[in-house]
Structures are given as structure tokens and as C-alpha cells.
């Protein structure tokens, strides 16, 4: 037993065949302590588990020093008998229900996105739903025709659908699956639209700083994001503006809505917006704007 102290209980687990239990010990002053305790049955199902845990803990300490196979076998036996987890055993869940009684396999087609830098020709005639009578042909070139450094494009894939699905508009399918090339230049119309949306956002920022409602700034933010979404070339050239619209601008709108926006908050975000504006000027080709124009106005 561990040392006993006044007012502090101590618990000991041991097996008993019957009869009273004699507890002996030495007092702090050197005297001898001895007392007989009558055993009584307690209706607690967890007692055997508690004893098993304590017994296994002692035996694991013994196993670390001796590495005895007999000790290991006894640990496993107590663990299985009392359903106690040990370093040599584990709980395993078994299920009697057979999910696939017939043993037949079922193939599930899982669509995945195209790998990076791979392209596939537009699949005219294949809708986004089910297609019947689908015939695929994938002409593969010989491996020797590819460059030594590997392939950067997938083999050409063509598809045809029979029945009513064959009339699916190919132009619509092209628009659905087409991704703009990274080097696709922005048109003059797209640049003008982004420039106007950015000017409107800057005006909304200044108005919000002067006390305007949050709705005006939020609407200008959404319109600018829509304009950037129409041109991949411009959108990827203005990461500072993208980050501001999705981070600082959202914080400003929330602060305005809660009437918690102050001059310090606007001053902190104004510096970030000024950097984003300068980056947008270069991307839109207005770096040499005439003096006194809107681009030269201070935020």
C-alpha cells in the first residue's frame, strides 16, 4: 500500500477468497498499526475492471525489465478476460451483417478535375447529365513520338452521343468547359469596365470615410469583383486589390454596419488600398495618367 496521510483516502486493488482482511503498517512515530477489516460485497460491476487495470499496470512494469513471455501472456489473458486495453491488445469491432451478399462488384464513376496544365478538346454533344449510347475514341500516338521530357497535353479525346443527346449545343458546351488561357490579353472593354468599377469603389470608400452607409461600399465592392471576374488577365495582375476586396473591405463593411468604424481603421486600410490602386494603375495601363485626374486624387 502507498503511504497514508490523515484526511487523504487511499485505494488498493487485490483479489480475496473470503474472510476478514488484516491491514498492518508502521505509524509516523515508529509504532505499529494493525487492524482487521471485514470484507463485504459491493454491487459495482467496474471493480473487476479496476483491479485488472491495476494488475496489468504492475505486470507491464515487470515486463519492461524482464521481457518475459510468461508475463506477456498473463497480461494478454487478463486483458481479454476483463476487456481492458493494453499495449499487446486492441479493441476490434465486428459486424455480422453482410453488405454484398451476392459478391458482385459495382463500378462507380467519380468525376475529377483535370490535372494542371492539361487540356481536353471540347466534347461536343455530351450534356452534364446522363448520355445514352456514348462512344469514346481516344487516338493515342506512339510513345516514341512524345518528347523526351514528357507530355504536357493529353491525347485528343473525341466523343459522340446518339439519340436526343446528339443535338446538345456545342457552343454552350464550349462555354461551360472552356478555361481561358493564362496568356489571354484583356480587351479594351474589360479594362474600361474594371477601371470604372475601381473608380466607383474608391469613391464609395471616400464616402464611407465621410459617414456614408455600409451598403454603398459593399455594392461597389461586389461590382468590382464582378468586373475582375470577367478578365483573368487583369484579375491575376492585381493580387493586392483582390486581397483588399476579400479582406480589408469586408472588415470595413462589417465595422460600418456595426457603427464601429473610426478614423484609425480607415487610415490603416487606406494605406493598403493606395498600394492596391497603384498596382491596378500599372495593370490597366494608366500609370501615366494626366495630373489632376481621378487617379491622382488622394484616398
Explain what the structure shows:
It is built from nine helices and four strands. It has helices spanning 47-66, 69-82, 170-177, 188-209, 214-229, 232-237, 239-246, 248-257, 263-284; strands at 21-26, 32-37, 135-137, 158-160. Residues 122-166 and 288-299 have low confidence and may be disordered. Strand 1 and strand 2 (32-37) form a beta hairpin. The protein is mainly alpha-helical and 299 residues long. The termini are far apart. Among the domains are: 23-91, no CATH class; 188-296. The longest helix has 22 residues, at 188-209. Helix content is 42%, strand content 6%.
Which tags fit this structure?
two-stranded antiparallel ribbon, two-stranded antiparallel sheet, 299 residues, mainly alpha, disordered C terminus
First and last CA, distance: 78 Å
Estimate percent helicity: 40-55%
Largest sheet: 2 strands, antiparallel
For the largest beta sheet, what order do the strands appear in spatially? 1-2
Q: What are the low-pLDDT stretches, counting only 5+ consecutive residues below 50? A: 122-166, 288-299
Number-wise, the strands total 4
Strand content: 5-15%
Backbone CA Rg = 38 Å
Summarize the structure.
By secondary structure, the chain is mainly alpha-helical. It has nine helices and four strands, in the order ββααββααααααα.
Question: What is the secondary structure topology, with strand pairs?
Answer:
Blueprint: E1 21-26, E2 32-37, H1 47-66, H2 69-82, E3 135-137, E4 158-160, H3 170-177, H4 188-209, H5 214-229, H6 232-237, H7 239-246, H8 248-257, H9 263-284
Antiparallel strand pairs: 1-2, 3-4
Amino acid at each position: 500500500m502507498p503511504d497514508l496521510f490523515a484526511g487523504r483516502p487511499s485505494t488498493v486493488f487485490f483479489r480475496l477468497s473470503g474472510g476478514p482482511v488484516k491491514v498492518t503498517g508502521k505509524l509516523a512515530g515508529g509504532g505499529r498499526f494493525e487492524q482487521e477489516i471485514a470484507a463485504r460485497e459491493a454491487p459495482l460491476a467496474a471493480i473487476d475492471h479496476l483491479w485488472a487495470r491495476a494488475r496489468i499496470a504492475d505486470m507491464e512494469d515487470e515486463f519492461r525489465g524482464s521481457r518475459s513471455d510468461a508475463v506477456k501472456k498473463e497480461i494478454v489473458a487478463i486483458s481479454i478476460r476483463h476487456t481492458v486495453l493494453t499495449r499487446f491488445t486492441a479493441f476490434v469491432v465486428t459486424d455480422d451483417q453482410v453488405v454484398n451478399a451476392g459478391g458482385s462488384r459495382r463500378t462507380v464513376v467519380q468525376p475529377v478535375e483535370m490535372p494542371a496544365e492539361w487540356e481536353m478538346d471540347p466534347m461536343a454533344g455530351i450534356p452534364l447529365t446522363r448520355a445514352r449510347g456514348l462512344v469514346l475514341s481516344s487516338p493515342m500516338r506512339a510513345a516514341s513520338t512524345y518528347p523526351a521530357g514528357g507530355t504536357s497535353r493529353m491525347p485528343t479525346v473525341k466523343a459522340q452521343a446518339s439519340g436526343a443527346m446528339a443535338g446538345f449545343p456545342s457552343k454552350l458546351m464550349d462555354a461551360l468547359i472552356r478555361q481561358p488561357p493564362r496568356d489571354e490579353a484583356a480587351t479594351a472593354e474589360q479594362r474600361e469596365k474594371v477601371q470604372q468599377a475601381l473608380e466607383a469603389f474608391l469613391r464609395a470608400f471616400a464616402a464611407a470615410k465621410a459617414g456614408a452607409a455600409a451598403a454603398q461600399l459593399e455594392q461597389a465592392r461586389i461590382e468590382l469583383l464582378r468586373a475582375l471576374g470577367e478578365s483573368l488577365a487583369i484579375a491575376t495582375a492585381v493580387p493586392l486589390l483582390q486581397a483588399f476586396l476579400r479582406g480589408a473591405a469586408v472588415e470595413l463593411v462589417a465595422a460600418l454596419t456595426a457603427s464601429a468604424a473610426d478614423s484609425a481603421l480607415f487610415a490603416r486600410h487606406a494605406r493598403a488600398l493606395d498600394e492596391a490602386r497603384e498596382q491596378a494603375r500599372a495593370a490597366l495601363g494608366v500609370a501615366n495618367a494626366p495630373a489632376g485626374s481621378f487617379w491622382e486624387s488622394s484616398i
